[in-house]
Design a protein that fits this description.
The structure is a homodimer. By secondary structure, the first copy, chain A, is an alpha/beta fold. Chain A has 13 helices and twelve strands.
Chain lengths: ~325, ~325
Amino acid sequence: MENKKSRATIYEVAKEANVSLATVSRVINGKGNVNEETAKLVRDAITKLGYIPSDQARGLATSMSANIGIVLPSTNYVYINKILAGMLDVCKIYGYRPLLFTYENVEDAERAVDSVIASRVEGIVIFNSQLETADVKKFTNISLPVVVIGNDRLNERNALVNTDNGTPLKNFIEAEVKNGIKKIIFLRDPNKDWHMTNGYEDAILEVLKDNKQVVYETKEIKDSYIPIYEYYVEYFKTHKPNHELYVCTRDTLAHALVNAGVDLGLKVPDDYEVMGIMGTKDSRKCRPQISSIKAPLYDLGAYAMRMLTKMLTSTLAADKYIYVLPAEYIKRNTTKV
Amino acid sequence: MENKKSRATIYEVAKEANVSLATVSRVINGKGNVNEETAKLVRDAITKLGYIPSDQARGLATSMSANIGIVLPSTNYVYINKILAGMLDVCKIYGYRPLLFTYENVEDAERAVDSVIASRVEGIVIFNSQLETADVKKFTNISLPVVVIGNDRLNERNALVNTDNGTPLKNFIEAEVKNGIKKIIFLRDPNKDWHMTNGYEDAILEVLKDNKQVVYETKEIKDSYIPIYEYYVEYFKTHKPNHELYVCTRDTLAHALVNAGVDLGLKVPDDYEVMGIMGTKDSRKCRPQISSIKAPLYDLGAYAMRMLTKMLTSTLAADKYIYVLPAEYIKRNTTKV
DNA sequence: CTGTTAGCGCGTTCAA
DNA sequence: TTGAACGCGCTAACAG
């Protein structure tokens, strides 16, 4: 008593339509000429049996697939999801199927890499990550096209899409210095490679190297709203802010920082200034609204995926392998300049 | 001049190790006995060639795969990403590979369904969606296990995971009525099936059917922060709030509503009350903090995926096919009760 | 225009 | 313990 109805194969369609499987294959793929009448026979058989070709078998036969691997560290950040959304949309437009590979840490990353290779994807988009150059090499060694988002370090012979948060940040810091800022604190995740933060600190330091009066500090802190909020509520009770500027690697950090002060009756940006990076909706929801570097997150994902599809179909001109999207400083109400 | 290095096959490993491919297959899968010495030979060959078995071919041979389909409408909502994160984590733990299928609208949904079937996944998790019962039937017709999240409508013979937002909402409305609320406005997306909103309105109406003094209204509005914020900033200018209660299907809507009023100098909850549903971080970031029904979003995804894995390995007891997670009313500062 | 046949890379009998 | 042969579902020559 085998109750399990299983899916129809191309053979069954062929038998149903009284033709050979080659003919069925032809009408499915629209290749080669086939008599309209027999084509209709085949089509009828297909709908009758509810036949849907197996991409697995098709992939084996053609040594191709419509699979694209997306490699991400944990997806629980709003801005990563924006990037992901961009990738997914483009993926769908071009008819590719996105396989998601997530990992927790460096060791886990290697497992993810092997899993990607086993899955027989046509290409890969890696979001700025904890992957090592060696990991990425595993891909290129077998001629697997790779597009990296937001991490120059990995860009050996791979395509790269990045956003230039550094320039607007640098300009902003310059303006702050000119405006007489005395102290700048850079708030960041202990896990330095995570948030495309490469270049942030460089941008700040580049401005500050000509100006030794400005105190610069780095603060590593768990990058989650609640812990930061609670930390600064306590902190501000004993450390009265003194017009310093906080630069935060994510808007959520900025939001926590602003709320902590405001809840204690402090004034932003009068007592201290806060700058967010990424420019997600958080910056507009906060009161006062957060000044931030707005990165084109969705576009970052979309461009990366589009670049990959180009690499898969045509050959991309060499100078097109790197694409840096501009970011923009949006002045709102947590900064003075 | 073929420069393309392509991946090694099981044949090449076999040749390298001077054994047959059957032997290689055995050491890979740990099945059947194989001499430790020859096994080592094989393992060496594998590492030397960097061989990674093709899941595609393996899938064809075994009629199985490690692929699981996740069907979602757009990933551009925070709370959906929470659910997705839960699914992905469990997916990884059990060694399955998640394929993502997103779609825009009802027509697009059918394309997605066919794509899922073509991709030869072992099972499917569908988030409460615009799929029709007929779509889901396409899956069950070919004995494909399906778990549906948050939509009873689709639950014909499928596994279902849901969150009971209705009960705490009902209790809350009861308390509001007892407290003398005069008007309740239910804010929702025009696309009614989207946000697991099934049952919200029912919960409200069930309380109100015994109480004809309370005015009940429904307001359909684009569910995005900015439009709602702007709409209500204008609206409140000419329509002074009169202690009514707004129930919002997502926290973002609530956040917009609160900000609009507060920016105009209105007081929440004195001038009007706001209730959010979902309980994402928004509710704690807003000032005043938003009272909300906190749904176990991550768990929703995790449970659904776990349920699917159970269905794939063992047979699940019939009464375990439905799992309803409790939601909780968290009183914060935008409501009076 | 249509059918036959040989793989794609791997797992799995069945013999040896 | 090992190897040869077949099949998974499909595509792509090659004949007819």
